[in-house]
Amino acid sequence: MRFSINWAKRLPILGWLPHYSVGKLQRDFIAGLTVGLMVIPQGLAYASIAELPPQYGLYSSFMGGFIYCFLGSSKDITQGPTAIMSLMVAMHSADFHSKQSSVNYAIALSFFCGIIWLLMGLFSLGFIVQIMPLPVISGFTSAAAITIGVGQIKHLLGLSNIPREFFPCIIKIFTKIAGTNVWDLTLGLICIFLLELLRYMRPVELPAHYYDSPPTRVQKVSRKFLWILCTARNAIIVFATALVALAYHEKGLTPFTLTGKVEEGLPDFQFPSLKTQDKNTTVTTLDMISDIGSGFIVIPIIGFVENIVIAQAFARKNHYEVDATQELISLGVGNIATSFFSGYPITGSFSRTAVNDMSGAATQMGGVFTGSVVLLALSVFTPFFKYIPKASLSSIIIKAVLRMVDFRIVKRMWQTNKIDLVPFFVTFFSCFYELDIGILCGVLIAMVVFLYRRLVPKIEILGEINGRYHFKLHGGVTYVGIEYLTSKVREKALVNNKSVVIFLECSTMFECDFTVTEGLVQLYHECGDRDTKLIFCDVRKDVKEMLLNAGLPTELFKSDLPEDLSGLLNTPM
Amino acid sequence: MRFSINWAKRLPILGWLPHYSVGKLQRDFIAGLTVGLMVIPQGLAYASIAELPPQYGLYSSFMGGFIYCFLGSSKDITQGPTAIMSLMVAMHSADFHSKQSSVNYAIALSFFCGIIWLLMGLFSLGFIVQIMPLPVISGFTSAAAITIGVGQIKHLLGLSNIPREFFPCIIKIFTKIAGTNVWDLTLGLICIFLLELLRYMRPVELPAHYYDSPPTRVQKVSRKFLWILCTARNAIIVFATALVALAYHEKGLTPFTLTGKVEEGLPDFQFPSLKTQDKNTTVTTLDMISDIGSGFIVIPIIGFVENIVIAQAFARKNHYEVDATQELISLGVGNIATSFFSGYPITGSFSRTAVNDMSGAATQMGGVFTGSVVLLALSVFTPFFKYIPKASLSSIIIKAVLRMVDFRIVKRMWQTNKIDLVPFFVTFFSCFYELDIGILCGVLIAMVVFLYRRLVPKIEILGEINGRYHFKLHGGVTYVGIEYLTSKVREKALVNNKSVVIFLECSTMFECDFTVTEGLVQLYHECGDRDTKLIFCDVRKDVKEMLLNAGLPTELFKSDLPEDLSGLLNTPM
Fold this sequence. Notes:
Two copies of one chain form a homodimer. By secondary structure, the first copy, chain A, is α/β, with parallel strands linked by helices. Chain A has three domains: 21-207 and 214-265 and 276-402, no CATH class; 408-452, no CATH class; 458-570, Transcription Regulator spoIIAA, CATH 3.30.750.24. In chain A, 61% of the residues lie in helices and 6% in strands. The first copy, chain A, has helices at residues 7-10, 13-16, 22-49, 55-59, 63-71, 83-93, 99-122, 128-131, 134-157, 166-176, 182-201, 217-231, 233-250, 285-292, 295-317, 324-340, 350-358, 366-380, 382-385, 390-402, 408-416, 421-433, 435-452, 482-493, 514-529, 541-549, 562-570, and strands spanning 79-80, 276-278, 281-283, 347-348, 458-465, 468-474, 501-505, 533-537, 557-558. In chain A, the strands form three sheets. The first copy, chain A, has a five-stranded mixed β-sheet with strand order 5-6-7-8-9, with helices on both faces. Chain A has a two-stranded antiparallel sheet with strand order 1-4. In chain A, helix 25 (514-529) links the parallel strand 7 (501-505) and strand 8. In chain A, helix 3 (22-49) packs across helix 18 (366-380) and helix 11 (182-201) packs antiparallel against helix 13 (233-250). Chain A is elongated. Chain A starts with 6 loop residues before the first helix and ends with a helix. Chains A and B meet through helix 21, helix 23, helix 24, helix 25 and helix 26 of A and helix 8, helix 21, helix 23, helix 24 and helix 25 of B.
């Protein structure tokens, strides 16, 4: 463990700020503004996934950018509320009698998770993302996206009192479908259509040689305008539908289900309240911690995976390196800071990061502008937010999560490695029951599959000549496979109490664990009992050292090459 | 999956019964009797670990042998109550207001676990024992043994109202130590001393040439007598101390804490009651199942591990094969049958199996005699059992579990593979908090360690010649290591946008999972973006097929041998 701090690594701003320029400032300003226009409607919408009042989505949207500017190791990523994190928050904070309890839980969650991320960073536990199996992450993401999408249908239909859980939600929607608000449904469908249209229309910047002639200034400006229009489509849709609702309101009509009162102004800066009063029961900090339980494993891991996968994707695209430890630290500090401003857990957002990159972000400074836009919106526009129809926010969410459902991976797994479909489907289906349990089951099954494939190590039995048996190991043996290896040797060479010689060629054994050494030592003793010689050929130096330490005598090891070995096999002893 | 039943495998009795003889019957009779004399005091004692009335230990001691005679695949193993299973039972059934609830839970546990074992057997899930890491099993066994031993100290001191949990138990013993019953303590210590003495005195059968002259008939008989005396030492101690207590009782004295009333006669045959009434609450079958929860994973796994480890050890010693699937089936049927006679979960017992082997058991028939001895004891001797002092039973338990604590393994792990100490100690210490949690934490940590060691695959960078980079993989790559591999390639060969050729030698890659193929395909696309060629050399057939299915074109694969490859490296293209 290193105890000296590498400041350039731990404060990435020290790396890029000295080279900052007006050009970069311009690019960051535009990118930050664009992302800001995106995060405002998303924040309001995601708060509804988290089952919190809308302003809490905005409260979670600014500190991430400010902190990331100092601590983040990727120039593209923008941290804030995301659909999946909001769903995870709802799972742990929604089921209380008072709204205030839910809010307190959500804020406490971002405080505690922040501490966990920070600790993971300090202990360099970033490798955890590597050991999360891809099929599990993929199954989880698709299931969560579908759960979120289905959860929004109630807003699209204008129904209320629909439970949050997947299956009860579907059942309740069907029983209540007669009460659909046609205005909401129509508005929602129009929004979805317009969002799709605007996404489709967004101009793609092609390399110069694709064009017959260089674009004129007018063409350039109009293309840029269209690009901004399409990129800010969420904000435009929300603004437009809110205007429509406001117009109806002026006439004394409220055909749409509206967002309702949004708390005005900026959140207070205060230490997150880590206890709450729900109806007549006092929930202490310890109660909260034990309530959240497995959430303290699952939320930090999922949040970190979301963040690092996005960071790595853009780092690869733009040729730079991200530092997993540093991302953990920025997530940790960002979440703790957010919890002081009444925000709920944040992480890297894929859609906003992509827009940030496309908008030409030069450095992490963009987050500061994004955060400022959110603060501005909070202090000025909150009175207007109450007119936003819920159906238009839902349409944004549905559009966003539909892209996260990926079933092409099923086909690819089928073609390459069918057994990986097992953890995928176990995760996918059990996530509909509960996300935490889905992830844990998925990881467990993936581990069993991983180990199951190591149960039968590849052993070539080269046959017997004059009481000499020759076994060749292909591709190593782990603790799960040692029983198979020794039982194979026993079965072939130790059956009849004859005294024989056993050669075990181990050139492909690159490592060795304790169970393996124990198994080989036991095999050696069994051979000794039968006056049989066990010879290890071509053992790598580190493995040999382990086996010697485990108590095998040096004379068992022959460093002969396979040619030599077959010679040994043919000469009588 | 096979749907035809291999009767010889599924009913092992069909294999040995046709060759049965009077000689074998004699041997089985003696062995069965000896084990029977052992299981009676053990059953009474282990019931106290399970915190059940003593007769339930005997109720659990006979059906196992009867069933195993038909279904068991090892001639030596004897199934019945064991110290560890009794502790696991106590964990799930002890904390109720009424004793009847505890009893119902314990019986239901053996019914449900029986079903789980049977299902595991039918689905051939015997491999689960292989994927249980040895350090976890070892840490668990030592911690459980210490917990059991410490839990018996209260009986040795004659204290009552001591909690079951490890730490509260120790604390309470210290606060109550002034109330020690000196009679109990003295008796207990004498019993421990005598048990140790008798164990030490047991004659060992040496090969004939160790003796100066062949033993006389008197020597032979006296040695045999001594052997039986020493082997039945538990029964003798229990019988003798009960006689002493009875003598005191006749004089109107009760200096020792006695076992107390033992229900007379045989248990009724009845369907296990899967619900119960605890104080004023009704516990339904579903409540029971959700109460037991993780116990349904941990108890069947621990029970099976205990059983199969013992079975394999004696199979190795006596040169026969045990069938993991068949052991599961016998455990399943044995436990279900036991639950119909009010017994609690049973599994293979190490101490009794060892004695069975030493007594010369010829076949599984011994279990029938053992069971008959227990039935005889139940129907005749129960009135006498109430005089057995608790301290003498505790001394038997303490002697039995002390041998299960094994810390020499720590030294061996330290010498061979230090990282395996992490799961060992995590399991060991967390088991004192709760056994279930200890096992689960241990397995989790062992998995993380297992994967952590695969995080950095061994890649040899053979260097660059004329824009050709040569990487050589040593020992395969799994999903946890692919990120390291591709990032290493990226870092070395894809940094500057030059068009280069990358050779990746994969001769030691014996398998490939979905995440690996995805990573390599992505690397291939990245290389394509940079006009760089990625060549895979010496890829094994099955891995190549997977990569082709994943979408890599055939021309990327060169089946050249390493010699050829270095030739490629040296010739200009």
